[in-house]
Each structure stands twice: as C-alpha cells, then as structure tokens.
Write a structure and sequence with these properties.
It comes from marine sediment metagenome. One of its GO terms (biological process) is transmembrane transport. This protein has 191 residues and is α/β, with parallel strands linked by helices. It contains 11 helices and 8 strands. The longest helix is centred in the N-terminal third of the chain and has 13 residues.
C-alpha cells in the first residue's frame, strides 16, 4: 500500500484518487503542492493497452467505470468491515498532519538556550546522568547504544542526538545526519 508506506516514511499529507475522479485528483494535487511538508498523492490510473488487455479488464471506458464502482470515500470506509472493503479502492484525504515540524524548518532550528530543547527527542548515552539531564531540560531522552544511532536517524526515531566532540570527528555521522537533526555536542571533559 503506497499510502501506508508514505505514512511510515514520514509523509504529512496523503491522499488517493483515481483517473475517473479527476476533480478530486486535481484538488488533492493542488493541496499536496501547497502543503508544507512531505506529500504523497496516489492516483490509480487505467492502462488499457497493457494492464487492461493482459488482465482482460476491458477497454478504457470499462476500466474507468470499474474505478467508479470500486472507489469508496475514506470516511465511509472507516465504518466498514475489512470484508466489505475487499476489492475496493479507498479514496480521499487519508492523512494530514500540520503540526509536525517540516524537514528544512527543523534544520533551521538552533538550540541556543535550555528552553530550546523542550519536547525534542534526543538520543542520549545510556547513563543516568545524560538521561536525567535531558529529562530535566524538558526534552525526551532516548537512551540508545551507538550501534543503533545510524538506523534511528534514518528512520526518524529521534529529533537530535548527543555526541562527544571526539566521536563527531572520527565518525561519518555528518554524512547520514546531513541537515536533518540537531547535534548537541557534549564536551569530552566535564569539570
């Protein structure tokens, strides 16, 4: 399911339509373009020359009418059982999140004072002092072994990470992190 995959990948606007429902398709595409964030519009298209012919689904008209028959609006689909939805195409605006900080906006956020870390999910070293410090500052401390950090960054599990200066210099974390997460640099020596 393209839409579920998009949601798992962090899309903040997801819609689905068909070529039969052209007015809805145009509306969803316009909204996706204007939406601030990662948007996906899944448009189910007819393909009479290959898909239709090889699967004996008929000509263009028959395939378009089939889209009309199979399509069901998302709000209506939520009230139906999985058995009733079998063979249906769920259309409409499937997901929208306007509260999530957009990727490039998150990059621009600079942490200058303790209040700036409130609510941010930080990977911290698995020691009580770091966990306690970030909880005290109001952020969400995620204790995590270093070996899991690369994958966690790629999957968006955290908003930022703590990293000693020495580790920052010898790792390739900047290659993965690029412009995604704030890095809270921890001095190697605490006095």
């Amino acid at each position: 399911d393209i839409c579920e995959l998009a949601k798992a990948a962090g899309a903040t606007y997801i819609a689905r339509s068909t070529t039969y429902h052209i007015n809805s398709t145009i509306r969803y595409l316009e909204k996706a373009i204007k939406h601030k964030g990662f948007s996906v519009v899944d448009v189910i298209c007819d393909c009479p020359t290959l898909f239709g012919r090889f699967n004996k689904l008929g000509d263009v008209t028959q395939m378009m009418l089939k889209q009309k028959e199979q399509a069901i609006q998302f709000k209506k689909a939520q009230k139906m059982s999985p058995e009733d939805l079998e063979g249906k195409i769920i259309t409409g605006e499937l997901y929208e999140n306007t509260q999530k900080l957009e990727y490039t906006d998150a990059y621009q956020k600079i942490i200058e004072k303790p209040e700036d870390v409130v609510g941010i999910k930080f990977r911290v070293m698995q020691t009580p002092i770091y966990i306690g410090l970030f909880k005290y500052l109001g952020s969400n401390a995620i204790p995590m072994p270093w070996g899991e950090v690369y994958t966690a960054i790629q999957q968006g599990v955290m908003d930022g990470l703590t990293i000693p200066i020495g580790t920052l210099k010898i790792t390739r974390i900047k290659n993965i992190n690029k412009s995604k997460n704030p890095i809270f640099i921890v001095p190697d020596l605490l006095l």
